[in-house]
From TrEMBL, chains A, B:
<dbReference type="InterPro" id="IPR039422">
    <property type="entry name" value="MarR/SlyA-like"/>
</dbReference>
<dbReference type="InterPro" id="IPR000835">
    <property type="entry name" value="HTH_MarR-typ"/>
</dbReference>
<feature type="domain" description="HTH marR-type">
    <location>
        <begin position="11"/>
        <end position="147"/>
    </location>
</feature>
<dbReference type="GO" id="GO:0006950">
    <property type="term" value="P:response to stress"/>
</dbReference>
<dbReference type="InterPro" id="IPR036388">
    <property type="entry name" value="WH-like_DNA-bd_sf"/>
</dbReference>
<dbReference type="GO" id="GO:0003700">
    <property type="term" value="F:DNA-binding transcription factor activity"/>
</dbReference>
<protein>
    <submittedName>
        <fullName>Transcriptional regulator, MarR family</fullName>
    </submittedName>
</protein>
<dbReference type="InterPro" id="IPR036390">
    <property type="entry name" value="WH_DNA-bd_sf"/>
</dbReference>
<dbReference type="Pfam" id="PF12802">
    <property type="entry name" value="MarR_2"/>
</dbReference>
Length: 167, 167
DNA sequence: TATTGTTATACTCTATAACTATA
DNA sequence: TATAGTTATAGAGTATAACAATA
């Protein structure tokens, strides 16, 4: 114990730097998505998830889990995206209970319209001040942290699917 | 241009690693603040800002600017914190228009109650997998990025105080 | 019975604009 | 007139619980 709450200056510095950088970056990204394509961050993630999905399709529950939102929350967002003509919702062929989401042509176009600016923001804010080696070092460090976080879940970050079992 | 949106694999990797690490960390921190002290992230920041303020006091507008929220938003949060007995709101002595916020004893106790767990989360998730040298390297890299971000504002991140002049 | 998704509902947070009171 | 803060209000987003349909 050497500082306000048990973190020394170096530790606090690292923590604050990480939080400030990510906060500024996220802010900028959200602003760009909104102004360039009228999308929120989550909506963009839904579209990108569909774009990167094996068949270009995803089930609601799977997507909700991977984006860490409630299913009802995703239903709400999917409703907006469907109304905007960017995605389709159709009953899954193999399991009639499921809804399969798919990208429309308009959805692809919207991504294409937004992505360049998105990339610009990331490059300008995050990548520009880093050399190639810097980027490699940063990624290596953060990857290590990420792997560690995944191994030791944040205590309480109970996976959605296990809710039932906890009772 | 080599990948989906003009970012190559290394660049994408760095970007995603940063966003995922910060997102997981922020999630965990918010969850801890809520369960340990019934505080949201912003409320915690308000309390911490007051704790670290020179006289233990801050004006509404200054705090709103530094936390990047609207003044009405801060009024709302300050109202909650005052109702909870954690802060006081008093007219500033030098300028009767201003409201000065101050921490109550209960506010200090709340911080004390929450801070250890807060630190735990940061240490467990972020710091544990890093050596001392790693932390130094990470901080150095992120600090460089942060400084760069501050110099070249996110295009649009117009400082609150200048709103008037833009019209 | 369990699971998928939707709906009904309630709540939190946020911001804009109008307002007051000081300067 | 300009500024500090509050209030009224409205909107976006989220989640919980109840529900309908299917497995």
């Amino acid at each position: 114990m050497t500082q306000p709450g048990g973190l020394d200056a170096a530790e606090l510095g690292g923590f604050f730097a990480l939080m400030e950088v990510s906060s500024l970056l996220q802010h900028a990204v959200e602003q760009q998505l909104r102004s360039a394509g009228g999308l929120t961050n989550i909506q963009f993630k839904v579209l990108m998830s569909l774009l990167e999905a094996p068949e270009g399709q995803l089930r609601m529950t799977d997507l909700a889990d991977s984006l860490v939102v409630s299913r009802s929350g995703l239903t709400y967002q999917a409703g907006l995206l469907e109304k905007a003509g960017l995605i389709t919702r159709t009953p899954s062929p193999d399991d009639e209970r499921s809804t399969t989401l798919g990208l429309t042509a308009a959805g692809r176009e919207r991504i294409a319209a937004v992505l360049p600016g998105h990339v610009d923001v990331v490059r300008r804010l995050l990548l520009d001040p880093l050399t190639r080696d810097d980027l490699g070092a940063l990624t290596a460090l953060l990857s290590r942290v990420r792997d560690h976080m995944r191994e030791a879940p944040p205590r309480s970050a109970a996976p959605r699917a296990r809710r039932k079992a906890e009772q």
